[in-house]
Amino acid sequence: MLLLGAVLLLLALPSHGQENSEAPEVLPIPKGACAGWMAGIPGHPGHNGTPGRDGRDGSPGEKGEKGDPGFAGPKGDTGETGVTGVEGPRGFPGIPGRKGEPGESAYVYRSAFSVGLETRVTIPNVPIRFTKIFYNQQSHYDGTTGKFYCNIPGLYYFSYHITVYLKDVKVSLYKKDKAVLFTYDQFQDKNVDQASGSVLLYLEKGDQVWLQVYGDGENNGVYADNVHDSTFTGFLLYHDIE
Question: How many Å apart are CA 158 and CA 231, to the nearest integer?
């Protein structure tokens, strides 16, 4: 009994360092206790209680440092073409370009003639002498020989129109002693006929071109008078720039 009273007295005393002006409370000794009472053996620990509720969210922490860039993802699919936008305003004029190289000379090369037959007398296998001059300003045609002499290399056009009368006609256009074009016309009795031909020829400087009756005198029906003409014409189309 005395031991129980001492324990209760100790529990009622204040802890060390605690000041209390009030008198300690003395617990009463339980009534009916035996004089020889002793403390029992400590019991087994109790079961753990149920977990308490989650506490409140804490305050946000400070912002962390920026992380490293991640790996590039795969290329996406090409999107659809967008609608054409409105035309923008006109820009300012550009800077003028550099001056071009000098062009080819503006000089015009000329070479042309047009002549006719004044007499019906012609000799086979020699150049026909056209002595009626319609045009020969550059004097590249020689009426004394019946030949055209090339002074400007390039491409030329030649044509002839022959009046056929009394006999058949077979004429040839020659270039450098070689026939390059033949024309034949058969005379019809009591009729005046026409024979013609034309050709493009490239000539070098010094080349000669002419007309002549081909074969014997039986094909020499070339004719001209005051109302019927036989003509020979040629002119330069373009000169050789090389």
Answer: 11
Residue pointed to by tokens 């090409």: 78
Q: How many CB atoms lie within 10 A of CB 151?
A: 15
Three-class SS state of 202: strand
Residue 198 bridge partners (DSSP): 159
Spell out the long-range contacts of 33-41 with Cβ–Cβ below 8 A and sequence spacing 24 or more: 33/1, 33/4, 34/1, 35/1, 36/1, 37/1, 37/4, 38/3
Residue 239's pLDDT band, with cuts at 50, 70 and 90, is: very high
Tokens of 78: 């090409």
Report whether 232 contacts 213 (CB < 8 A): no
User: Has domain 112-239 been given CATH number 3.40.50.300?
Assistant: no
pTM for the whole structure: 0.56
Taking only the tens place, the pLDDT of each residue in 92-142 is 888 898 888 877 667 789 999 999 998 876 788 899 999 999 999 999 999
Among 70, 224, 227, 203, which residue's Cα sits nearest to residue 147? Answer: 203
Rounded to whole angstroms, the Cα distance separating 156 from 171 reads 20
Residue 204 contacts residue 155 (beta carbons within 8 Å) = no
Query: What are the structure tokens assigned to 53, written together?
Result: 């509720």
3-class DSSP state for residue 218?
helix
